[in-house]
Amino acid sequence: MKLWTSPWVFCLVILLLCFGSECGTVQRKGRSKRELVRIREAKATIPGACATRLPRGKRSLPGLERRVLPHRRRSAQAVENSSDRGKSVYFTGRGDQLRLKPGVEIPRGNFTLEMWIKPEGGQRSPTVIAGLYDKCFYASSDRGWLLGIEAVSEHGNRDPRFFFSLKTDRAHKVTSIHSNARYVPNQWAHVAVTYDGVYMKLFVNGAQVGVSREQSGDVFSHLTKKCKVLMIGGNALNHNYRGAVERVGLWRQARGQRQIIRDMQGHEDPQDLPQLVIRETFEHPGRKWLTVKDGSFPQPEQGGGWRVGFQGLGGGIGNSEGLLDTMLEPPPCGQTICDNIEVIKNYNNLWNFRRPKKVRYRVINIWDDTRTRPTVTDHQISLQHQQLNDAFSPYNITWELSIYNVTNSSLRNRLILANCDISKVGDDVCDPECNHPLTGYDAGDCMSGHRNRCPESKQGNGVCDPECNCENFSYDLGDCCNPNITDVTKTCFNRSSPYK
Ligand SMILES: *[C@@H]1O[C@H](CO)[C@@H](O)[C@H](O)[C@H]1NC(C)=O
Ligand SMILES: *[C@@H]1O[C@H](CO)[C@@H](O)[C@H](O)[C@H]1NC(C)=O
Ligand SMILES: *[C@@H]1O[C@H](CO)[C@@H](O)[C@H](O)[C@H]1NC(C)=O
Ligand SMILES: *[C@@H]1O[C@H](CO)[C@@H](O)[C@H](O)[C@H]1NC(C)=O
Ligand SMILES: *[C@@H]1O[C@H](CO)[C@@H](O)[C@H](O)[C@H]1NC(C)=O
Ligand SMILES: *[C@@H]1O[C@H](CO)[C@@H](O)[C@H](O)[C@H]1NC(C)=O
Ligand SMILES: *[C@@H]1O[C@H](CO)[C@@H](O)[C@H](O)[C@H]1NC(C)=O
Ligand SMILES: CC(=O)N[C@H]1CO[C@H](CO)[C@@H](O)[C@@H]1O
User: Fold this and answer.
1) Separation of CA 490 and ligand 5 centre (Å)
2) Using a 6 Å cutoff on CB, does residue 474 contact ligand 8?
3) 10 Å Cβ neighbour count for 378?
4) Mean pLDDT for all residues in the chain
5) pLDDT tens digits along 335-355
6) How far is CA 424 from CA 306, 410, 484, in A?
7) What is the pLDDT of residues 142-166, one digit of tens each?
8) Hey, what domains does the chain have and what are their CATH numbers?
9) Cβ proximity of 183 and 149 under 8 Å
10) Closest Cα to atom 11, ligand 6: which residue?
11) Residues with CB under 6 A from ligand 6
């Protein structure tokens, strides 16, 4: 049996390319045009983002507040070691900020800063994870750029998100862009910020989550070069960061999304290296960094702080599975923007919100190599398409369908269980998300009562007996992973077996 859990490999991926730029934009006073443009810009880059964006002031509904994120385990593949991955260090938020030694040329124009971080919860707002300051112009403390965490809601620290702010020396105002969702405490996340003289962009776990073109030109000029200080872990105003940091990279180019994803996966292209200014692995932080006054270097993270799977896991999608601590989360019930009374009122009162709109979506249909067994038939697709249009046309919404056929038997035979990471199957803990007949009830983990029901006579008798198909009995002593005996795509749960 084959298992895939990568969220984006669903047989049926529906891409909602949003209801045009108006979607979910609440008309309200006091929001500057600039801000609206920014919201729109951000939306344009996150398909479907509007669906989960709660309006201001409504973000802290009790249900959302208390929603406990399920515990995420590290992938089994992750345990392997790799020397150039470096160390993760822990910033206490008290006097262990680091300042880049003079002599390293900080990029003036295009740049990319990227790193893995695991922020603790309850950061103050704003918290600065890394930033570029100007130590000469005290009058203007916001010159330069910052990567950090800040609350977006007016109500205290309720909705903390990653942000990237930038103010070039010539600009009058600072520009901040925020990630689309709050950060998850104690989870590793890969964050990257880029600037190419026109666009500033924020990436979280390889996804572009914010963009703005409000700033332009070089960040600073030759003349002020000596004034610039790059810090990580906090700033001079004590907006310090608490949490782990690993593998900080600074480039003198605005890296594209593909490159950022490759960096995230730990692949290094020698061709790119001339563009690399710093790759800090924290093996010898004293070589490039200075501590602040009376401060100390951040210490290696306690408790086996290795981040999950880093490199050598083979290329492609499977990689990101072990690599990222992300999972698919449905929007909390009743808390999408479209359920918001204020928003709906606007739609009711302003007819121009209800102008005809087109939603484009794509069905990715997976066939086997002989092009016989599609995941869904043409008839099902057209039926669904018809139903969608019938249901939404009274509201001036039409659907535009495109179909993408993929012919790949191997992919077709895979089973996707949302959130069931392959490493969880048969790990001696019953994971409800993996409790499915097709995984042999989490390879037996969820059948504690049935553990002993496999009589010895059935073990390894040349028949795959379901009651023996768990790790405890070596998957029926191998019978269930033997292609000569059984349809292994359905019965083989042994993680190490090539037939799984
Ligand atoms: C990983 O590397 C560390 C430091 O180099 C070493 O102490 C540890 O034993 C290694 N672990 C494995 C599983 O190789
Ligand atoms: C910065 O990036 C932009 C867009 O990639 C490019 O056109 C420009 O030449 C770059 N500037 C420098 C100084 O490399
Ligand atoms: C659909 O759009 C038209 C304008 O094109 C508008 O007059 C009408 O009220 C809209 N219908 C609904 C149900 O919103
Ligand atoms: C996908 O396959 C179906 C069924 O064979 C076919 O009708 C359709 O034209 C194909 N679409 C594309 C874009 O290839
Ligand atoms: C088919 O899917 C498998 C994953 O199941 C993938 O490894 C392989 O590259 C795909 N083949 C092609 C030709 O895309
Ligand atoms: C799983 O499969 C591997 C490779 O075929 C085998 O060496 C191992 O013994 C199997 N594990 C169990 C628990 O049966
Ligand atoms: C399946 O049968 C083939 C041919 O009889 C044999 O070569 C192969 O080793 C068998 N595989 C297993 C896993 O027993
Ligand atoms: C072969 C094997 O691992 N047997 C174990 C299966 O599980 C029972 C109960 O948990 C153990 O007692 C057996 O030793």
Assistant:
1) 19
2) no
3) 10
4) 75
5) 677 777 888 888 888 888 788
6) 19, 22, 27
7) 789 999 999 887 665 578 999 999 9
8) 89-300 (2.60.120.200), 347-413 (no CATH), 423-490 (no CATH)
9) yes
10) 474
11) 471, 474-475, 494, 496-497
